[in-house]
Design brief:
alpha+beta, Arc Repressor Mutant, subunit A, 21% strand, Jelly Rolls, five-stranded mixed sheet, five-stranded antiparallel sheet, 2 domains, elongated
Amino acid sequence: MINRSHKLTAMLPDVVHCELSSADGYAMDWHAHDCHMLLLPRHGSLLLSTEDCNSHARLSSLSFSVIVPDFGHATSAVHGRESHLTLYVDPDYLRRYGPEHAGMDLDAEIAGHGQWQRSDILDSILALHDKVGPAAQSKSGSDMLRLHHLNHLLFVECMRIVAGTRRLCAAGKNGNSIMLIRQVQAFITDNLEAHHGIDTLCHQFHLSRRHLTRLFRDVTQETVVDYANRQRVDRAHRLIREHGMSALDAGLAVGIDSPSYLARLFRKYLGILPSDCRRHH
């Protein structure tokens, strides 16, 4: 059974309303809204199920999703703690906004639901929202005004992306695979010091070991281990060359506690030794 969630009454006069969810084990059963919903993960990942699809769509901080009114959907955290912003938009406002600012029928472009890749501009607005949001809880006029403005900017930038780029799911199975592997790459890069193994990645992204390794090689033309080690070497190289770190400290910063092993990786991926970075600094 799909319950209807009424959000229009919570909206401010500019017909945009924003909510932040942050919890362990987040899950929301099947429901539908009386307005458009923009779902923007901040930390962790969400699984999105919709009434028109038998499989789950995975949302991470690399993407956002738009769902139209009266469209059944359910969401849940992949595992562990996650947080996301949800922006609710009056359907009439979106219809008025489209022709004037985007030159297109945004209602028709969204058509049910879709997922789009984020822009650097959107990430910057979200970073500001993370800073202003907690302060606005004090209900001071200036902080509320800033948050009110940022909510509108989030909507504007999301609609600019919708109007200017194809939805990720429109790219078909191959496009979805590419997006999934980009999420795996981002997780590896964000957690280099943790040295997560393939089994951890399989658990994090709900994939079998065989499927992950095959898909990763097909998309990136390299193995998961090669990608992770190359990222470690690139970051260690910058830490030594640009920040004056010792090889030992740079190695520890990227999850490598053996200087000799770091040296072997440097020679394999860069053709130099860590000591050569200082020599040319």
